[in-house]
């Protein structure tokens, strides 16, 4: 009995790797031999073809998404520090008689409260409304930080000059 079972299992495996299928008196012969063109490293040798096949396969399945890099915490921390330094340096510099504020949103000598409120009223709603801070790209924030770097540097330069050449009024 065991020999018969073994024969039943081995017999189909011992046939050649071709199959003949007959359908309505039309005979078709299929070659089931291994084609070496599709080797295990075919995609390493033919990167362009494989990439094209993958693109076509996923084109209809997956929707297209634009990947947008998000701003980092360090960029936002730098932005916040520059805002605080701008208010601080402006406030300190305005305590000298030779320094006047040139920003048209302020008077020539705005108070510290007005400096803080104006910055807050202008920046916070635009960043918080509809998660606006998430839509700021890293490049935009880097540009803004670079601009404020020069603003703060100029403010401290003016403050330093005022300390040596002007009279303190407040």
How would you characterize this protein structure?
The chain has 170 residues and is mainly alpha-helical. Helix content is 58%, strand content 7%. It has a domain of 93 residues. A two-stranded antiparallel sheet has the order 1-2. The longest helix is centred in the C-terminal third of the chain and has 28 residues. The chain is rod-shaped. The mean pLDDT is 78.
Task: Write down the overall mean pLDDT.
Answer: 78
Strand arrangement, major sheet: 1-2
How would a textbook summarize the main sheet? 2 strands, antiparallel
Q: How much of the residues is beta strand, in percent?
A: 5-15%
Shape: rod-shaped
Helix content: 55-70%
The helix count comes to 7
Radius of gyration: 37 Å
Look at the helices and sheets and give the structural class: mainly alpha
Brief sketch in words of this structure:
By secondary structure, the protein is mainly α. The chain has helices at 2-13, 42-45, 47-59, 73-93, 112-128, 132-135, 138-165; strands at residues 18-23, 26-31.
Please write out the topology.
Blueprint: H1 2-13, E1 18-23, E2 26-31, H2 42-45, H3 47-59, H4 73-93, H5 112-128, H6 132-135, H7 138-165
Antiparallel strand pairs: 1-2
